[in-house]
User: Fold this.
Amino acid sequence: MEERTLSSRLLPDPAGPGVSCIQARDTARALLARLHVPSAGVDDVVTVVSELVSNAERHAGGATLFEIHARSGVVTVEVSDRTTRLPEAQTWAPGRPGGFGWRLIHVIAATIHVRAHQGGKTVVATFTDKQLHAANP
Assistant:
């Protein structure tokens, strides 16, 4: 990644349920394209974006903010929602969909952390330049 800072931010339509997965994925792809991130790295980031936004929809009433930043060899994805309840890995149950997302993002992203704030929380996932380019030597 070149030494520059790029950022994008999405806020939901006030009348809508929250930032959509489609909007967040498209925003992430556009920013990563400007950085010439290989397709495997883009796929990793977009997978984490999809999981974080869909988890906000499923468990917290929708994403209230989506941000993606690229600076100094690190891409950071942030998804905020309306609940202070911390995410937790769910026990897998045959016949019940879901339960893999929180584990999956921990495998894909370099780091994951959660910041509580007034009115909700923000889940932050980071990806290193090395990690994003690893699949394409």
Notes: The CA atoms of residues 51 and 93 lie 19 Å apart.
